[in-house]
Amino acid sequence: MFEDLEDDVKEKFKEYMKTLSVDKLSVILEVMHEFLLFNVAIRQNPDDEDYVDTSSFR
Q: Against a cut of 0.85, is the pTM above it?
């Protein structure tokens, strides 16, 4: 997903992340961890209107 971003957007994102405090980075990491656990724990129904095939995400 990050690879799909344009180079200037990647650079701005990297610059932004470098300005964050350790506490804020910790919160981001915790939220990402919870998100991943939630997505792994919940089986997706391919018949749902908002279904997203996550098998191609790496």
A: no
